Amino acid sequence: MLETSAWGQRIMLKRALGSTGIDVSVLGLGTVKIGRNQQVKYPSGFELPDDKAVIELFELAQSLGINFIDTAPAYGTSEQRLGELLPNRHDWVIVTKVGEIFEDGQSRFDFSFDYTVNSVEQSLKKLKRDVLDVVLVHSDGNDMDIIKNEPVFEALAALKEKGLIKAYGMSSKTVEGGFWVVENCDVVMATANLDYDEERPVLELAKKLNKGVIIKKGLQSGHADSSTGGGGVEASFEHILNLPGVSSMIVGTINPSHLRDNVRIVHQTLSS
To answer: In this predicted structure, what is the pLDDT of residue 190?
Structure first.
């Protein structure tokens, strides 16, 4: 059962992010939509919200018990806006990424040692943090090539040793890559939804080894809604939050009504 506050308000359940010592709300807020609206895979286009709307969205999220935010340098101005607009900035757990750069409407990738260090330093400045909670490698789809031939994980290990990041891993795209990350890093970001269950073995291994699991694309970038032909938002949450090892599910929205609905569905799912 979920806890309630002294005012009778249900409190968003938090789960351990593996063995990192970090607790995250089971629903996390994705922020690509506050920083980038080009080359995104949502059912319909959208305008970037103004500063007032962004602040109000984060205040609402925090009031609903969400403490976990996902961002990335590839999300346009997302990191910059978080640093400038996030209320109670140090009460949040933030996961950001390295490796992907989005410029002039296109993505490119750089997994070199120097770029990784520079990217983390820039994220620290933009987010106005002394330490980053979680940094993930933003895979280009070739997980094992990155793992075997690029020094990005060596750089992240060095940054963790220096105390600039608390935990690291990868936003992976393959089962093989996910296995390696679970065995060698702190956190994996994996894909799971009603139409895709191939990475379940990665989640099972993460549970066994007590590694953090963050789920992406759980609502299929907006396509899970039954109105767009998907299997439904409620069914998606129920499926994902009951998968083995899952710490949190990231859902991106700039719509306050959708955010409230998502939180309500999470409460219903975890109370049943």
So the answer is: 98
Neighbours of 62 (CB within 10 A): 18
Domain count for the chain, please give it: 1
Structure tokens at 166: 């608390």
Per-residue DSSP letter, 222 = G
Share of the chain above pLDDT 70, in %: 89
Give the pTM: 0.92
Residue listed under structure tokens 């351990």: 16
**Distance in angstroms (rounded) separating the CA atoms of residues 178 and 105:** 28
For residue 153, the 8-state DSSP code is H
Whether 44 shows a pLDDT value over 80: the answer reads: no
CA atoms within 13 A on the CB side of 73: 26
Whether pLDDT at 45 is above 90:
no
Distance from C-alpha of 261 to C-alpha of 255, rounded to nearest angstrom: 10
Task: Give the torsion through C-alpha atoms of 126, 131, 133, 134, to 10 deg.
Answer: 70
Q: Residue 30: which domain range?
A: 14-271
Determine the Cα–Cα distance for residues 233 and 239; give it in Å rounded to an integer: 10
Quick one: which of 143, 142, 138, 153 has its CA closest to 98?
138
Please, are residues 205 and 179 in contact by the beta-carbon 8 Å criterion?
yes
CATH (domain of 124) = 3.20.20.100
% helix, strand, coil for the chain, step of 5: 40, 25, 35
Give dist(CA 220, CA 41) in Å, integer. 9
- 177-182-184-185 Cα dihedral, nearest 10 degrees: 110
3-state class (DSSP) for residue 159: helix
* Span 94-105, pLDDT tens digits: 999 999 998 888
| Assigned token pair, 135 | 């940094």
Residue 185 covered by a domain: yes
Flag whether 79 is in a domain: yes
